[in-house]
Amino acid sequence: MPTLKDSVKQRFMAELMSGRSAEDFAVLVVDEVGMRVMNSVIRMFDLSEAGVTTVENLELARRPLPELDAIYFISPSPGSVELLLKDFEDAKNPMYKNVYIFFTSTLGSLELSHMKSSPIVSRVRGLKDLNIEFLVTESNVFHLDARRAFRNLFAPGSSPLEEQHNVARQLATVFLTIGEMPSIRYHRNHKTAGSIANIVSDKLSSYVSNPNVKFPTSQSSNQPLLLIVDRSIDGLAPCLHEFTYQAMVYDLLNVDLKSDKYAYKTQDGKGQDLNRTVVLNEDDPIWPQMRHMHIAEAIDWVVKEFNSFIKTNKAANISKGEKARDVKDITEAVKQLPQYREIIAKYSLHLTMTKEAMALFNKTNLEEIGMLEQDMVMGETASGEPVKNVFARLTAVLHNPEVSPLDKLRLIVIYTLSQEGVDESSRRKLLSVAGLTRDPTDGEVVRSLEDIGISINSGKKSRNIFKKDKKKRKTKPDEVSYDLSRYTPEIKDICQQLLENKLSRDDYPFVKEPVGGGAASASSGQSARSRPVGNWANKRERKGESEGENLSGSRVFVFIVGGMTHSEMRVAYELQKAFKREVIIGSTEVITSGRFVEQLRSLRGPERALGDY
Fold first, then answer.
1. Nearest Cα to Cα of residue 558 among 465, 495, 490
2. Of the four, 63, 308, 333, 353, which is 20 to 30 A from 599 by CA?
3. Which family does it belong to (predicted)?
4. pTM score, two decimals?
5. How far apart are the first and last CA of the chain?
6. What pLDDT, on the 0 to 100 scale, is given for residue 339?
């Protein structure tokens, strides 16, 4: 059975080739939505093999190529359809010869009628809704790129049903793409998860009854399991500082959440400064090996690996035989080994990023802040002693002018949740000590937690996880513990219970009971990891967490409504390794602490631009 990323790639390429051969050269035209979906699974080499000569942006001015056919992969939005039709409005001078049109989701009736009355009709050689409305950003991670879903689902006074249908429709296309009918469970304590779970079930049932859609007509004994929860299960994970490499660089180095791009400065062979931008993804063979390492391990690992690489290359001669220690040494290696320029540049990038992350760690006093965070949520110190003087320690940090407003808000949220609620007067006092009284929306950040189903008032009955005994959060024996990384995301405990068949069916019921136990069993079925496909569908060789794993049993999908953190993404890999069963995590979007705080801020006020997070 192919991975999720392979499944999307195979389907996309198969549809791209339908009705044409690789010898028929064509232009691929995409809008922003189509580009993001495509870029998450396809590389230019794959497109070249399929006869695509160039990729064009629908939204930009383009040179007419009337001698070539065009393939459009675009969203069915009114704007994109209008631009598509504009390319062919002059019947005698069309932008392209013939056209194959693929929409990311279902084309509306109004847009279809516009197409039928357009000169484009005579040139259409194919028209299909692909229904691929998600991004596969990692081997075990996908998201819906639904950046407005949080506000639309949770803002007081909103009408969330339309957004619930949008999320459910997008989530259902994951299973349409892999051609598997899942068994669905959901977190009963919040109506959002239950509503979306039922809508997903209805959407998938509609695929079964649609003769134009190839989809299993019944459940199987090896069906995947989909568990749907929402952000109310864990308000701590998005606020805590996380010190594994991936989470830390996204939090501290301003990596763009939407594009996964990181801008940095480096030097050329002459020592001149250069501005570079890279995409942090699995095309970089180093990234998946170190992204889940604690930052202390990551720094040592990247230096050790680079020196090992140099040692195995007999032509290397860095600093007269000495080992590389910093970016300067690696830059010297680039000069001496031009044939290895690309891989050496990757080592240089990650050494730069680890060093910059650690510099910010020291500059922003994250050791003290991180220790306070962990002590508050664990209820004990790193040595196992009961925590004392929490409020005094907290107010001292909040009073420090060198601590950023964002970190202060994070601490106030963490304190509120770890104390199982704090009364209004105490919250106002904390905001005052922190100097966060000028912007009234700062106070709304904490109050908005109630909008997503998390109680914040002292003594009020809570229906979320924060009343759990803090002792249950202790690091398990098989986990490597650091004093600043003692907290385990709640989703890991939930998924572990799921994989062990211990997850409460009362708290996490099925939408429909699986056939013969089906996906309810942690050991059900077997999964093969191979399928004969064309060269364009071959999985790229790389080292990573999943290499060499023999996985069995049906796949488990976990979906978090309201955003997932990098620490929660890491959980999928940890559980897959532990249980030898494929675990895939998804969400409406990926969030950092900064984005989570700004989303909370926006719930009770006017809609804000969240593009910076």
1. 495
2. 353
3. Belongs to the STXBP/unc-18/SEC1 family.
4. 0.89
5. 36
6. 63
